[in-house]
Amino acid sequence: MIHFKNTDTASFVVARQQLHQAIQIPAAVARSFLPYRQDDSHASLDWLSRPKALASQWIGHSSRYRLALRFEDFTLLWLDGNLQIMGAYALHDRTFSDCLAWTAYWLEVIGFSPADFQWKLPYALPDYATDQGKRFSYDPEGAFDELAHYFSLVDALLRANINNRKDASPVRCWPHHFDLSTLITLQPHQDPEKIRSVSAGLSPGDAFYPEPYAFITPWPYPEASEELLPDLGEGSFWHRHEWVGVVLPAKAIAKKESQAAQRARLQTFFDRGLSEMITLVS
Q1: What three-state secondary structure class fits 18?
Q2: How far apart, in whole angstroms, are the C-alpha atoms of residue 251 and residue 146?
Q3: Residue 8 and residue 79: Cα distance in Å, rounded?
Q4: How much is the pTM?
């Protein structure tokens, strides 16, 4: 069972920024060799509980492959159709250009043209030092491990929650914002402004909060005053700057002393929160 620690915020930021930059490589592989989708879902990533990695969508036909980033030792992995590791590349002390070159080499090994590997993002990322030639660093190790724990537990809880829902999207990590989430579409509509939906997931941290946090966001955003909105319990609060939703930060989870209590707090947040948000927007 996973036990979360009170990892300091600065360590989370250092690990998260490097991971965010690095996951763009598996995403770019999928963009290069899979049919284009307007929502960029072909470049989304799946969390693999073993080997605790974010993996690209499958590429190839008669033989299938995917490129993954393992958090716990900060390593790129080429996986075959049975999820067996074919090649591994530790990112510590490597440049981003080194990682792209290794990826291109393996693309040729498995039968793809490196010339078709396109490194062009359809969105802007923050100005990370590793994108300017600075070498990656697997330090602080504990923060990488902790983020792996958060992704593992939230992925499992969300999958269990939406298991029997036909209106829920698969649990995916979106490389643009590095969030792991599912979207429950309650009332589809051709006009995006008229869709009714609820999104739930995990952010490993961002410009709003430097530490990881679980979130649930209803659409359309509720206009009621906060005291009239669902209260999802200890440590959670409503966020209202640029987007609206309920947030449960890592510090509120880690303060629970036992593993069971930490898991129960997150599970209650998603189970109760999704139920109440669905009622709110329906």
Answers
A1: helix
A2: 12
A3: 33
A4: 0.95
Does the CA dihedral 253-145-136-89 come out positive or negative?
negative
Which pair of structure tokens corresponds to residue 111? 């039968």
Strand order of the sheet with strand 85-90?
Answer: 46-48, 53-55, 66-70, 75-79, 85-90
Encode pLDDT of 106-128 as tens digits.
Answer: 999 999 999 999 988 999 999 99
Can you read off the two tokens belonging to residue 120? 């062009």
**Run of H or E including 31:** helix 24-33
Taking each helix axis from N to C end, the angle separating 9-22 and 24-33, rounded to the nearest 10 degrees, works out to: 20
DSSP-derived pairing of the beta strands 172-174 and 53-55: unpaired
Beta bridge partners, 70, equal 53, 75
Domain chopping of the chain, boundaries: 9-132, 141-281
Backbone angles phi, psi at 166, to 5 degrees: -80, -15
Q: What are phi and psi of 219, to 5 degrees?
A: -135, 130
Tokens of 14: 């250092």
CA distance 171 to 181: 5
DSSP 210: S
CB crowding 213-244: b at 16 or more within 10 Å, else e: bbbbbbbeebeeeeeebbebeebbeebeeeeb
Write the DSSP string, 49-74: TTTTEEEPPPB-SSS-BEEEEETTTT
Q: What is the pLDDT of residues 126-139, one digit of tens each?
A: 999 898 899 999 98
